[in-house]
Known about the structure:
By secondary structure, the protein is of the alpha+beta class. The chain has helices spanning 5-15, 20-36, 50-58, 76-79, 83-102, 163-168, 182-202, 214-224, 229-247, 252-256, 258-270, 274-286, 295-309; strands spanning 44-49, 67-74, 107-109, 114-116, 121-128, 142-148, 155-160, 175-180. The chain contains 13 helices and 8 strands. This is Nucleotidyl transferase AbiEii/AbiGii toxin family protein.
Amino acid sequence: MQIDPTYFADVADALGISDPSLVEKDYYAIELLRIVSKVSPPGHALVFAGGTCLAKAHIKTYRMSEDIDIKAVPDEETSQKSLGVKRQIRKAIRSRLEELIESSDEFEICEEPTIRDEYRHQHYQIKYFANYKPIEALRPNLQLEITEANLSDGISTRKIDSLIFENAGIGNGSLTIDCIAVEITAAEKFVSLLRRTAAFARDSEKKDDPTLIRHTYDLHLILESSADTNQIGDLIQSVIEQDAKQFGNQHPEFQRAPHDELKFGLELISAGGVFKERYDNFIGPLVYHPNPPAWEEVLASLNNLASKTI
């Protein structure tokens, strides 16, 4: 569906968003999610997850989120199949997704996808045909990640809207999709933030990721909401175990003593410096919260959660 680009500017003005490219990219992110929802892989449920899910399904975060994260959750029958059969099913997810994207008028896969661990993890860079040049703080493309995960609960069906449809009634309408629980998102963000911060410090050859700082903002808003903090604490321990298995070979310190390594990551962030600078830069162009939390507030929330869990 072609949208008159002036509507993106109108909605940006109404919401106090600095540039219409953010509203435009938000629209295309939801349209990409709409395509993903049509994949319908055999033996799997596709569940919306991550920061964009947080903002669209659970908490008004007042920030631009430009990633689409999907959990491919196998049913019990599929989980019992042979490794070869499961690999073929995951491979079929890729084939169907690429077929749908290539047949669309709005998107194209602009880089060779990154495929790891027998197709359990699939990472795509998706070009969308923008009218507005993305501001420097935005990536030029949409990022789509599909990761196989075993989830027995923590899934609910939610209605998802783009900013332009929510505020102006323009576009293809609401999308109904299964979404991951906010508590799972919080646990994953907490562990990822601290683990990856520590990993970058341990190995100077690893490429640092300044966008990780967004997790501090999201975690603060989650902890200020009605989310179940006790459940978040329990889930953090599960995520630690999963990440130690998945990333232990790349990060031996985390594999040996995961809690100590997460505390090391927390110490680095708590020192401020470059992390405070990154937070302030993030708050500038990508957040349109009427009263965004200061660095000291999000850091206090992070340390409070850490004191109860690690």
